[in-house]
Amino acid sequence: MAFGNPGPLGLWAFALTTFILSCYNAGIFGAHVSTPTNVVVGVAVFYGGLGQLVAGMWELGSGNTFAATAFSSYAGFWLSYAALLIPGFGVGAAFSSSSDTDTDDLSHAIAIFLLAWTILTVLLLVASFRTTVGLVVLFVFLTTTFLLLTVAEYNHSDRVKRAGGFFGIFTAIIAWYNGLVGLLASQNPPLFALPDRKLHSV
Length: 202
Description:
This protein has 6 helices and no strands. The protein has helices at 7-26, 41-61, 65-85, 100-128, 133-155, 158-185. The longest helix has 29 residues, at 100-128. The radius of gyration is 18 Å and the shape is globular. The two termini are 24 Å apart. The model has no long low-confidence stretch (mean pLDDT 90).
């Protein structure tokens, strides 16, 4: 039995969820940069989380270790990020005091969370140099996004957070483009080809 290419699903699940969160981080479309981002919880769980997890397992079955690792990892990111915002997980309640110290502790805890994902993204950026130009550009922008958001949380900087939001929006657009490349190429015959030059064979 022949299976389709799960790449577009994984990339678009990542792109759409990233776009929604990044619009809030950037403070555009009427949202303030400090507006609660709970609206992203549903899509983070069901599309960014479960959608990418399915794509990752599908890629694992097809022997594509890089894509399987990337999709499954970022599925874990979106599910764990959603857990930060869901009251039942108790993360917010642990920092529920109104004192400045507890506020700093929460921001620093989130900064550590984002720093860990920045490091993982750097490793995937290195691995992406054996794939395509489009994926390399995607991971460069994603690394920058995570780094800016880490700094923003640690320093309580809305200005840096907005910059991270705009980089996140560009990251989402690049991910949508990469997904579209794979989707169009999967048509039989292909509808038309978008540029996506190979760097090295995996």
